[in-house]
Amino acid sequence: MTTQTADAPPAPAARRRVSSIASPLHVAGAVAQLAALGIVGPFVFTALFSVLGAGLGLLFLIGVGVLVLIALVYVLFALAFLENARVEGLYGFGIPRLTIRRQLRPGFGGMMRMFWRQAIDPAVWRAIANLAISTILGVLVVFLAGVVGSAAALTFAPLYASSAAADIFGIDVALAWAPVVGVLLLLASLAAIIGLGLLHGLLSRLILVPSREAQLATEAREAGAQRAGAIRASEVERTRIERDLHDGVQPRLVSVGMTLGLARQKIDDDPAAAKALVEEAHTSTKAAITELRQLARGIHASVLDDRGLDAALSALAARSHVPVHLDVRIEGRCERTAEAAAYFAIAESLTNAAKHSRASGVRVVVRRRDDGTLWARVEDDGIGGARILAGGGLDGIANRVAAAGGTFRLDSPNGGPTALEVSVPCAS
Hints:
Blueprint (H helix, E strand, L loop, with lengths): L10 H12 L1 H34 L6 H28 L15 H13 L2 H34 L1 H4 L4 E4 L2 E4 L3 H31 L3 H55 L4 H29 L2 H6 L1 H11 L4 E6 L6 H20 L6 E7 L4 E8 L12 H11 L3 E5 L6 E8 L3
Parallel strand pairs: 3-4
Antiparallel strand pairs: 1-2, 4-5, 5-7, 6-7
């Protein structure tokens, strides 16, 4: 299962962005990139259409055509990723990074839904559209570059021409007029090339940069998902606390009260029996205190605040009934919400591994990635078959991670292994 940024930018920032597009350095970079795309782009799109035709033609062969089309989908994703990186590197628009769609549901149906969602990803198709438009502009730039060369040759034609007229694109121009026509054509061609460079920046911004309305709508959806996840996570946590109190601590405390009542009745007639009952009540009281401590630790891990995620996970691994191989490599501290989400996801995974998976070992890997996310993966060698059930521990993980603005993925086929991945924004 996987769950997948505010006020409008001020006018000065918008003006700076426009001037950035029109700066000589960016125009020169755009022209150079367009020239390269004008040469390479047609071959790329010819190959894409050839693969598309092959995939459609092979659909009648079971599986072959589908595999070709699936491969094409990921080739398009790679091209879109490179196109976004190219435009972002040139202009620095702040284009959202493309991500590969994850499988939301188990089985073949879930996998096919994942491929379909990847195939219709609007961000990918916007990038491919921008690549196609840039290729067309690039072909024009290459043509105009040829015109510039011809115009320069025409300008100096009187110095080397042996006839009375100079030929350019099949048109004879008198040598007396050749320099004038050549200069005018040269200036017009250069102006057209610069115009194409400016047009490229403008079109790229319009196509690849989400509109303000789209950004606000996305932010509203993300905020709604986080709010719903937080509410659901609190409900699941409250239910778990009530269940633990009702099934564990409460009966033990009732037993302590009954034992002390019996001891009070026997304290005059049978002091030895009363003493034994008091000892029993004392033992039960210590067990109840231990359970309360464990329950409190499940609500809030104080070591997480005091010493950080690495120390908290080390303590968690030391208490685990299943051997845990811990591999934590993070520098500095993350936001408390992010650390808590990762910690409780790992804690619940270790609990499930001990109670349900029959695992003989668990591997926990935690990293702080370059994109500013806290990533954790928990994998056990158990029997698998874990499912997200309403009100269950995995449901609590999913909602807690969603409330922190992160993503959660569970892969647990029957027979194992079970792998759980969590990614949470790590604002420090």
